[in-house]
Design goal:
Layout: E1 13-17, H1 21-24, H2 26-37, E2 41-45, E3 58-60, H3 67-81, H4 86-92, E4 93-94, H5 96-103, H6 108-115, H7 119-131, E5 135-139, H8 141-144, H9 149-162, E6 173-175, H10 182-187, H11 204-214, H12 226-234, E7 240-244, H13 248-251, H14 255-264, E8 267-272, E9 284-287, E10 296-299, E11 304-308, H15 321-331, H16 342-352, H17 361-365, E12 370-371, E13 395-396, E14 415-420, H18 436-441, E15 446-449, H19 451-457, E16 464-468, E17 473-480, E18 488-492, E19 521-526
Helix pairs in contact: 3-6, 3-7, 3-9, 12-14
Length: about 525
């Protein structure tokens, strides 16, 4: 996030696009609701009638995968109405002329044909956002999990920069991370092309810094993403794999392909707190302990580094992840893994990572609120990015072109499939489905289907349906709902017995390599 979570309450306008915020990020949703109570305008853009719609001033129920057309159309309308902030564009950005020309191709009438959004509604949403003194955009995986996910984000940034809604309190471009420490994991180099703090592995100076500290050469070429690794495993290009705190047999696209790839491996080790669907394929399972049994830090979606403290001793033979990794490294005769505590690891992080240079246990334990970048001990942290100037100097506009989703409905597969979460379960459900009171709320998966489509198919509530894509099929109960539009269905992701990712596609955004989980077409049949 360019801004901090607390600033949401003070925004004059909040645009939520591609995020079922109450289900995925309930604490952030509470900030949105407080902003509403203080008079903020709320604009929700989503293919589904999510719970937040009940509080929205404007709801744009977009056709799946048409975000770029909508955002380009909004920006084009604002340019025509003179509602962009020319001084900000001239002084602090570059490349706007190319964007100005590109969005001319998206008049509101054309955008209505692509997105299904009425022209008056689009214009009202654009003007409400642009006329607000402090306007924030919140987005999540409904924006990123497309073949055009990177361009979707660029279109969001274009809109924010053109209206001057960046670099100030309660404004900005604010992605909501999918899990509690995804931000921290990425910060620590859990990406194939960077070291900690997003330092490129292709930079010789970066490699030299880590080589001098570790006494090991760092590969100069980026590695593979998870989906790419599984593809390589399926082709026997990868022989062994270590899976830590991840359950690709439920969370990755085309699960059938994932299972085949895992079975091809010569060796699979899984490190987790429960015996997951992926662990069932493992040659060795190492018991990790939960957040309540270990020390360390989590980095929140707004870049705030937060201490976690051990509440209980690790249960049974389980150990914290850092201890397991260190012991494995020592068994493999690697030097430099003789850490005595997480505090020692944090000191190494600060030493090697400029954006974390001033973050320490001492400061965090003293109650300081620190958002990276925090380059030195006297630095207060950076809750708001791009104040005064952008990190790269001038903010860069990117012209982006709408392209249809990777997979569109047709005669054989006539329905858009959308996937997501319910508020009672978390991601793969390995924790929440073991909590009886939560499992009672939603005990298994279902498919939301519009009443019109249910009538056409002769489907009634709780009928067993077969949902089929080009990858596979699942059996799942029907839930007749007005939350989806005709021609679209929704299935939550948490349930292994009717795992929706049997259906989804492995096509990747070419830049970020994110799978296009939201680009999927299916057919539906009633099981007799």
């Amino acid at each position: 996030m360019t801004n901090s979570i607390g600033e949401i309450e003070e925004a004059d306008c909040i645009v939520v696009i591609g995020s079922n915020t109450t289900s995925q990020h309930p604490m952030i949703a509470s900030k949105v609701m407080r902003a509403k109570e203080k008079g903020a305008k709320l604009i929700v853009i989503d293919p589904r009638r999510i719970p937040l719609v009940e509080y929205a001033d404007l709801f744009l129920q977009i056709i799946p995968g048409t975000n770029i057309a909508l955002l380009n159309g909004m920006l084009n309308h604002l340019i025509q109405k003179g509602l962009i902030v020319e001084p900000f564009i001239q002084e602090r950005t570059e490349g706007f002329d190319a964007v100005r020309e590109k969005v001319k191709e998206y008049p509101v009438v054309k955008v209505r044909e692509i997105t299904g959004i009425r022209t008056d509604l689009l214009e009202q949403a654009a003007e409400t956002y642009a006329r607000s003194e402090k306007a924030m955009i919140l987005y999540a995986m409904g924006v990123t999990q497309h073949l055009t996910g990177t361009d979707n984000v660029k279109a969001v940034a274009n809109l924010a920069m053109a209206t001057g809604n960046i670099g100030r309190r309660s404004t900005g471009v604010n992605p909501l991370r999918g899990q509690n420490n995804v931000q921290g994991a990425c910060d620590m180099g859990a990406l194939p092309n960077v070291m900690t703090g997003y330092q490129p592995v292709e930079d010789p100076a970066v490699r030299a810094r880590f080589r001098d500290k570790w006494g090991l050469d760092v590969p100069e070429n980026p590695g593979l993403t998870l989906v790419e690794m599984l593809d390589a495993a399926g082709k026997s290009a990868i022989k062994g794999m270590m899976v830590v705190g991840e359950n690709p047999m439920l969370s990755d696209p085309d699960i059938t392909h994932v299972g085949e790839a895992l079975q091809t491996l010569d060796f699979l080790m899984v490190q987790d707190i429960f015996f997951t669907e992926t662990a069932q394929f493992a040659h060795v399972v190492l018991p990790a302990c939960s957040f309540a049994e270990k020390e360390g830090t989590f980095t929140n979606t707004d870049r705030r580094v937060q201490r976690i403290r051990k509440a209980i001793e690790p249960i049974g033979e389980s150990k914290p992840d850092w201890q397991i990794v260190s012991e494995l490294a020592r068994e493999m005769k690697f030097d430099g893994f003789d850490y005595a505590s997480t505090q020692e690891i944090m000191k190494e992080i600060s030493c090697l990572t400029p954006s974390y240079g001033g973050i320490s246990y001492e400061r965090l334990d003293n109650g300081e609120v620190l958002h990276w970048p925090c380059p030195h001990d006297a630095h207060p942290g950076t809750p708001i990015l791009h104040e005064g100037t952008f990190e790269r100097g001038k903010g860069r506009f990117f012209p982006v072109e709408y392209a249809p989703p990777a997979e569109l409905p047709d005669d054989e597969y006539p329905y858009f499939l959308n996937t997501g979460r319910v508020p009672f379960h978390f991601n793969g459900g390995s924790m929440t489905r073991r909590i009886e009171i939560l499992d009672q709320e939603v005990s298994t998966g279902y498919v939301d289907i519009h009443p019109e489509d249910a009538t056409k198919l002769g489907v009634e509530e709780n009928d067993l349906l077969r949902v089929t894509s080009r990858r596979g099929d699942i059996s799942i109960k029907a839930k007749i709902s007005n939350k989806v539009e005709p021609g679209m269905v929704f299935i939550p992701i948490h349930f292994a017995e009717c795992a929706v990712n049997v259906l989804t596609d492995t096509k990747l955004d070419p830049s970020a390599k994110i799978p296009a989980l939201k680009d999927c077409a299916v057919r539906i049949e009633k099981v007799s």
